[in-house]
């Protein structure tokens, strides 16, 4: 009896102890589970933190081959997967992302037209002229994501084989307010910055005033024209001579210059390029032919290196053979080609245009 009762009594003793045992076991299980969750989520974070296309630009599809690119080029090469359509046979066509940072009346509209004359470059205009899109950084980054995922709908949108996508952004459209976050975004996503600025700020101011006047006067057939396309139109608009407020003149020029200088400072960590309108205009080909297209600009050797670096890889290859074929000194050609001008932050547009 006793021997039979013993197991029962020992069992009941065990069940008295068991709340503690169970608690310990439960605690252990919770701890292990917690650690596991931490481990898994860290692993996921570290995956999604990998730069380039993997994060915002989509995850679908097998990875594209990046062997052909130079190492320093890889952060700037993307293979976006738009959600709303398929890039079809061009899904492994690399896409370069860019932003044209500029100020009103500095030649950015004209520069953008040059870019858009290329069949595979898509520059989507002044998308942040709409206030809601720039009301805070989360709306800004959401807008940028859509553009760089190749899902922005505009007249400049091209085919599935787009090789470079971007837009122009005026410095006074929240660029200066959110410069830190924007520069981080650019560095993070591998966006190249093209500054298009104007040296002569007095002329810029005259142009700003003339443009403001035309908004009401609509001098050409009752239509407001921000950008003229013929000599006649230009002459007509130039007849208006704005009156400058002398007491506001110097402060205006100073603040414009400060904005220019600050923006260069804020974005110096990004991969960037600086074009001055005056230098572009001095290029004899641009000067003598208003319908001058990007192809001409591209075929100017040094500019060509720059543009092809950010934009079209196939051009890069063509340039390589061009330089190697043309040059008497093969080594010099190779040297010039392999030194990436973008990595030299002190180089300004003139060097490429003038050289
Ligand atoms: C544009 O892209 C297509 C498809 O990748 C390519 O065949 C064509 O050569 C490109 N055009 C230029 C001018 O680079
Ligand atoms: C950002 O702006 C949008 C639109 O104006 C607004 O809906 C949203 O709440 C704002 N977000 C933050 C974090 O302020
Ligand atoms: C000229 O500029 C000054 C300083 O900004 C301003 O106080 C004044 O009202 C302006 N005059 C006119 C006619 O706009
Ligand atoms: C100007 O450039 C356009 C476009 O490249 C070309 O078709 C035209 O023949 C050029 N005009 C002159 C006068 O060179
Ligand atoms: C960068 O550009 C400056 C100015 O043109 C030049 O003096 C310097 O040698 C360049 N540096 C490199 C590494 O190419």
Provide the descriptors you would attach to this structure in a database record.
355 residues; alpha/beta; Rossmann fold; five-stranded parallel beta sheet; disordered C terminus; binds 2-acetamido-2-deoxy-beta-D-glucopyranose; Sulfotransferase; Nod_factor_sulfotransferase; membrane; P-loop_NTPase
What does this structure look like?
The chain is of the alpha/beta class. It has one domain: Rossmann fold, CATH 3.40.50. The chain has 15 helices and five strands. The chain has helices spanning 2-48, 108-116, 137-148, 171-175, 179-189, 201-217, 231-238, 246-266, 277-282, 284-288, 294-299, 301-310, 313-326, 330-338, 349-354; strands at residues 96-102, 121-123, 164-170, 191-197, 272-276. A five-stranded parallel beta sheet has the order 2-3-1-4-5, sandwiched between helices. Helix 3 links the parallel strand 2 and strand 3 (164-170). The N and C termini lie far apart (109 Å).
Distance between the termini: 109 Å
Mean pLDDT: 72
Number of alpha- plus pi-helical segments: 15
Largest sheet descriptor: 5 strands, parallel
**Roughly how many Å is the radius of gyration?**
29 Å
What percentage of residues falls in helices of 4 or more residues? 40-55%
The total of beta strands comes to 5
Offer a concise description of the structure:
With about 350 residues, the chain is α/β, with parallel strands linked by helices. It is about 50% helix and about 10% strand. Mean pLDDT is about 70; it is low at about 1-10, about 45-60 and about 290-355.
